[in-house]
Every structure is written in C-alpha cells, then in structure tokens.
Structure prediction request, 190 residues.
Amino acid sequence: MVLGSLVIIAVTSDSSPARQTALAADPLAPATTTPRAVPSTPASSASPAPVPTVLRQSATSASATSSAPSTPSTSQAAPPPVRIASCTVHYAVTDQWNNGFTASVAVTNTGSETLSPWTAGWTFTAGQRVTHSWNGDYSQSGSRVTMNAVSYNLTLAPGATVDIGFNGAFDHGNPAPGGFTLNGARCGIV
Prediction:
C-alpha cells in the first residue's frame, strides 16, 4: 500500500574547478538521512557535466517488517462505489396551498435484510423546508432532509413499507425532491 511519495530532482551546473564532489542521496534511504559523498568527474575536464541531485522521499508500507521498496502510485485510489439499497420510494404531494404543502414518502424495503433502526433521506431542489412530520423524526440541513425511525416503527422488515408524512413550506415553487436514500444508500423511485 503506497501512502504517498515525493520525488524532487535538482540539476546543478556549477562549473567552478573548486567543486570536487556532489552529494546524492541513497535511493533506498529515507529523505531525512545524511547524504553520502559521490566523487565527481575528474578535475582535468574543462567543463564538468552537470550532476543531478535526487532527493527521494517514499512512503513506508503498512507492514513494519516489509523491506521491499514501494512503487509510487501515479493515480489516486478510486472512491468507494455508492451503495444502492434494496428499496423503493414513492413521493407524493397530497395537499398544497400558497406557500405550504403536505406530502408523503412511502419507503419500501425490497431487500432481504431487516433494517433496525432505519433512516430515510432526500434533497429538496427549490429551498423547501419541513415544518412538521409524523412516522419519523426529521432534521434538515440546508436542502438535505433526514427522517429517522421513531419508537413505534424502528424496524423495517423485508417487503415492509413505512409511510412518512410531513408538512412543508416553500418560497419558489414545490418541485419533487431527489436523492432518496435508505440508511445512506440510494433508492429507486416508483
């Protein structure tokens, strides 16, 4: 496992005859070690060739007993895939007035595992706000709403549906939300 690496290359072209040695780091030593002296080209040369100085810092592996050099990674690790839950969601506005509405969110566990407790979530797209809920305790941060199970419906068995209801307010229209999740994994919309 490579945690990170840094390679710095510096090329010098000092042509003074006083230069007798160049310093180069041991390629397998950590960057904090004292470099060892490496003889330069003979002094009889009229113009010595530039001597590259390489400082290498490489990450240590996760195993303390490993002595093999690690290979630098050229790309970052891919993010973990987004989990797709075995669930479906049906969203419906059941009543609406000038600046408010009532809606229901039916979440069905289509998987084979019982969820206890469960947490449903969605994202509003036009600044809507939940003002009251039933069959779930809500919290809202910006446009993201989280609805947690309550004492009388903590468990969502395979094939079971929980009907969450809420009242909401809006200022700029009331389009349907998106990004429905169950226990952090995306759900299909029906």
